Amino acid sequence: MIDLLTVPFMRHTLIAGVLVALGLAPLSVYVVLRRIVFVGAAVAEISSAGVALAVLFQVEPFSVALVLTVLTFLGFSRAADSPRLPLEALIGMLYAGGSAAAVLLIVKAPRGEGEILNVLFGNILTVPVPLLWAMVATFAIVGALQFFASKELLISAYDPDMARALGINVNFWNTVFYVALGFAVAIAIRGVGALLTFTLLVAPGAAALCFVRGLGAAFVVATTMGLIATVVGVFASYVFDFPTGPTIVAILAAVFALSYAYAAVRGS
Amino acid sequence: MANELVSVRGVTLGYGSRIILKNLNFAIERGDFMGVMGPNGSGKTTLLKALLGLLTPLAGSIELAPRNGVPLRVGYVTQRERLDSHFPLSSLEVAVMGRFGMIGAMRRPRRQDYEIARGCLRRVGMEHRAALPYRELSGGQQQRILIARALAGEPDLLLLDEPTNGMDLEAERAIMELLLDLQSEKSTTIVFVTHLLSAIEHFARRVALITRDGTVIIGAKEQMLAPETIARAYASQEL
Questions:
Q1: Which of A61, A89, A92, B190 is most exposed by smallest CB count within 10 Å?
Q2: Is the ipTM of this structure higher than 0.90?
């Protein structure tokens, strides 16, 4: 099995998986606690539509996807405050609209199905080295932000009124969180695809929250789970000749199912 | 006048074009233990938000007297039902949030912040629950933790929103006696909003009564709880 590491593209695959797990798993705790799980799915579709748009007009796909992703997250940060409409309705329509737009745009693109499949299911096997470095930089910044601004991010999500009473600018920190999330999601989708990105944005945090008793522990456990599931998934896909992204997703789903069952048995 | 901690002058409060409270003129004095009561939907929480600086008056001014040239510190005890029970926070982690406004942006709480928060838990009789998940505590215990959280910010003025809501009489008495102890111990000015007459009747020293027509009457408890005053405030309330 160790010979996997002697194959260059598998080394890159492993590195990409580890980076995305380290970048997204800690964010997944807040994604679950802030009840924006399906924002990840909707944004992934918007990002796909962005890539399809870029392919159609033959411009650099990542920049378009990044701009659309960040703008969509910023939109969500404002929509959360709307008294007129439940956020779920907006998420659902963006998901449907993004999916339809991606398909409609891609059928007219010079490079059709292969490109959209690449976006939707990822191509963790062919992540180029410059993108790996971009992941390192992005996830390092997002991780540092989560560490140093932990109190602002926590109280803005947990008790916004108290935060405002303490002089903390809740709108600013919510915007910072959503922009950071947008960058992390955009680069993760570019590297490993929408499905794995969405799963890593939900499963580690959801699994960890099933049994931890402190928020600090939730971040540590979520990151550890995401990391282990990803490494195991890469090795398993190599050994059993499965597609890598879906293999990691299946393992993360199993980890969540076990955690959920454990919490149900314990009655918590 | 020198004893006034908060001066509310000609204040009108509302959201956009919707006016909730109008022409408010009153003062909160240092060391006050004041209960704010009124019919449902009369604007109790709106008034609290304005005192906290979360809502800008549509007219008039709210002035907080500085202490030795330092801006007044206001502690806030939110309604505990509004806090999300999915957050896996220990009681100490909740209590230390009261320090967040004093730490500086992008800085993490230090050991001394946790020590101060632990001291506040001790003051409210909850130090032995510091490591336990906040969400697993009873309503009364959670309320104590939230009071400790507000105390951790070393407030001159403590504002509480429905501190005994949903509690039985015994738990209500325990919380209100705790507040009275805190008030007499450090002369912290305390203002609490409640819709429960029992909390006002047994514990408040002064009462601010919000009437149905959107004004506020303030006076000694005995005067404010007189049947004719209550009748005026609640006169047009739909049941």
A1: A89
A2: no
